[in-house]
Amino acid sequence: MSLVTVQITQYIIDNTELPVSTYDPFDGAHGSLGYWIMYFYQCVAMSMACFFNISFDSLCCSLFIFVRCQLDILALRLQSIGHNCNGVEESVEEVEHQLKNCIRLHMKIVELAADIEAVLYLPMSIQIMFSVLVLTSGFYAISLLSDEKLIFLKFFIYQSCMLTQVFVLCYFPGEVAQRSLKLSHDLYKSNWVNWQRSNRRLLLMLMQRLDIPIRIRTLDASLGFDLALFTSELTASFYKYQVWYLKLLGVWSLQDYATRQQRVWHALRCGLIFVIVSIMLLFFAIHVLANIDQISVILEVFFMFATELSCMTKLLSIKLKSANHARILTLMHSTAFQPISSREYQIYMRGAARSVKWRNIYAFTSLLAASLILVTQWFVDSSALPLSMYEPCNLARDSCYYGFYLYQVLSLMPSCWLNISFDSVCGSLLFFLETQVAMLSARLQSLGAAKTPPDNVGVAMELRDCCLYYGNIVKLKEMVVNLIRVPGSVQMLCSVLVLVSNFYALSIRTSETAFMIMLGSYQFVMLMQIFIICYAADEMSGQSALLSHALYSSEWTTWNRTNRKMCLLMMLRLSKPLEVHTLDHTQSFNSLTFASIVNCSYSYFALLKRVNS
């Protein structure tokens, strides 16, 4: 169905375009021979790839189902050990014989699972990796094309197909692991209490072995193919690429199983980025001190000096508490934060799509602003550098000029990517919290009526689970606040300095169009840098403020007195919204804070402009 939709939808919407956007060697218009050759080629290629995917995925599922069936057979044999023996001597020998046969069968199943894993783990792992890329781009496309019904339908069906593909590759290996975990319980159901001591020893050894599940592992040996991996791929979309870059810089902690060589390279990369940012700060500081009596020069330096200062704060904050921050990701992947209903899963998907959308917008605007800063100066005045800082050599020499120009490019771009990674991961974590609060709200609203005592017991258990869920959300929120508080507060202070200096520069160089475009784009990025964290925190606080109303919307009037008391206690606790505080505990990250920063920056600019005039 997905294949047919992809091939036909494009022809219905715009028959001048091919179903798949690829290089067209014929560059033929609609109706030409080249067009139909490419159309036929794409249809045949997609059909062959589709049938190959169907064959491979179904073969994988069939093999895992076969292993699961063998485990079911082994479970029946384990349960029946010793039930059909009459005499004592016959019983001892028969039980020993049955136990040894079960041990041999279990060993054969383990060997079969290992052989299947050796053949399939690589293509399945690559499939999961590319599925994340497809799902991410698909969610982003769906968020942009929701008004175009046919295109939306095409992406929606293809997205569903990709989710199904990943689901079946994770579900059936997970079934194998779960069934293998229950084998020890099946063995416990046998008639072992009447066995001789030697057979009970054999049983104990077998039970210890059965406690280790049969897992089909991925390329990362710490992960197995199961439903936890399926939901973790969606969870990873909140932070995956940002944390990868922070690990590349050497400031985010590595896994516990990292080798010594990996840790050495990790430390070297960390030292390199610290040296780069430190040298830039030193050159900016020397230039400020050398021109301390010239306000225009100081403001020209401060527009980038404050940005690098916030980068250094982020580096130090992440590196000093990297182990604590790494636990955030572990907690996010725990079962406590996974959706348990279709409604919650839809909320989860929307949260992931929004997080990806904001990350991409912020990354695009930041890279555009950084590129304009580095390129505009070349066209405006090729004898000056893009960034105003201390110049250790004479720029009149070409070697000095081009060398220092290259240094500024190589120094500014890692800082730009660092800002993108840190700011977007902070926003994504806050969006993740907002998503969890929305899922809790859905659970509270779905609490049903209780007309019988068993119904009240069920409601009590659901209320208890919601209390534990809210406690986990608060725990995760505190860990996220610990990540954001210090660098976010310093970022606000530095943003005020940058905004003031940019406002001043824009007011005195209004006739320079290229400079206005460059500085205007950078000003927009600085505003977005603060807005992302403030907006995401505000969304989380607003959603948490609605929790008490969500609980009130349940069928609480039919509950017994004990459940209504628990409901009242929960409403009292939920009446206080979750907030992300700055270093000043009386101030939180929210839309009012963002507005006050902009207002404060403009007030300082107006005062500076008046004093200078």
From TrEMBL:
Transmembrane spans: 39-67, 118-145, 151-172, 270-289, 295-317, 360-380, 412-433, 483-508, 514-537
Record's GO cellular component terms: plasma membrane
Keywords: Cell membrane, Membrane, Olfaction, Receptor, Sensory transduction, Transducer, Transmembrane, Transmembrane helix
Domain of life: Eukaryota
Pfam families documented for this protein: 7tm_6 (PF02949)
GO-annotated molecular function: odorant binding; olfactory receptor activity
Biological process (GO), any one: signal transduction
Topology term for the membrane: Multi-pass membrane protein
InterPro entries: 7tm6_olfct_rcpt
Localization per Swiss-Prot or TrEMBL: Cell membrane
Role: Odorant receptor which mediates acceptance or avoidance behavior, depending on its substrates. The odorant receptor repertoire encodes a large collection of odor stimuli that vary widely in identity, intensity, and duration. May form a complex with Orco to form odorant-sensing units, providing sensitive and prolonged odorant signaling and calcium permeability.
SUBUNIT field: Interacts with Orco. Complexes exist early in the endomembrane system in olfactory sensory neurons (OSNs), coupling these complexes to the conserved ciliary trafficking pathway.
Similarity field: Belongs to the insect chemoreceptor superfamily. Heteromeric odorant receptor channel (TC 1.A.69) family. Or2a subfamily.
PANTHER family in the record: ODORANT RECEPTOR (PTHR21137), ODORANT RECEPTOR 46A, ISOFORM B-RELATED (PTHR21137:SF37)
Protein name: GH21770
